[in-house]
Amino acid sequence: MPEKRSAPPGAARHAPVPFWRDIRVLAILSQLVVLGVVVVIGGYLLNNLVTAMDQKGFLPDLGFLGLTAGFEIAEKVIAYAPSDTYADALLVGLLNTLMVSIVGIVLATLLGLLVGIARLSRNWLVSRLALGYVELFRNTPLLVQLFVLYFVVFLQMPPVRESLALPGALYLNQRGVYLPRPELTSSGGPWLLSVVVGVVLAGLAWWLAGRREAAGRPVAGLRVLAISALIGIPVLGWLSVPGGAVSFEAPELARFNIQGGLRFTPEFAALTVGLALYTAAFIAEIIRGGIEAVSKGQREAARAIGLREGQTLRLVVLPQALRVIIPPLTSQYLNLIKNSSLALAIGYADLFNVSRTISEQTGQPVAVIVIVMAIYLVISLITSVLMNFYNRAVQIPER
Asked: What number does CATH give the domain 86-161+265-394?
């Protein structure tokens, strides 16, 4: 009989691990158990909520959105009358919220950038003033700041006959802020088309430059081309259209009121300025921290090649600091959008304020609250997506 050859060392197969001792199986089972417990508890709470709402007659019903609103809205972006529906009223409130949020974000970003850079100034007075601004607005409640701006500043403006006239046809009085109103002329359409073309070409050139840079290939002036297209094409379009593309209707002081122009109510002005001042204090610290996160060697290298202080900040420091600045900056933008709901305290007709009136009139508080929460969630998610996209665009590719 042939002899049986023994298996070489290490060739013996280990017995399979029983599934009740397999770490991977146990991890999956534990997650399923936790998920099951959460579903059971959530279902129990939801059932109790629905039962209680059914007993009190509070079950959500969206049919009220088609009913006549019957109330006026003092400030509106689009045409609205009390004979319109509750859905139209919610749309007006949403547009008011978006207007305050967009203007507030722009102002807060510009002011925060200036204050953040001033915090790092070598001038003692400038840096101390910037520090005082940050500590004042960051450590006092936003609601208190809104009250001060509205009741102490804007409502204490002079009456219409004694309006403060500022350069550029700007008027301030108790009824609000008046600015020249921009209006498109008959040549405005072609100019807007040139603006769109410039933005599209600039975006394509910038995207192509990023792809070439990530691949280690020369950019070959594509970013300069992008900036030139973004600025040059609209300027050429403006110069080529006859009579100008935009005209301005300046406000004029009449006997009892100011006629013409663009008016911002005291409520809108107080809310926008308050949100911008408050959020800019946090943005300033974010920008200061991002700039300080860039190593000193980068500044020294910039000085070694002859860059001035402003060029060093714009070309070397800020592009690298954006990697640190963008994520917390997104959180501040989201906070500003949600803080706009404090408009209720000063009577501005934002989404939350309008929804409160609708809830009281229709007796559907749950449905209205769910709609408002969903709208704020969508706005926040869109803002996060845009900021995350920009964050990926400014990241410096590692090699």
From this structure: 1.10.3720.10
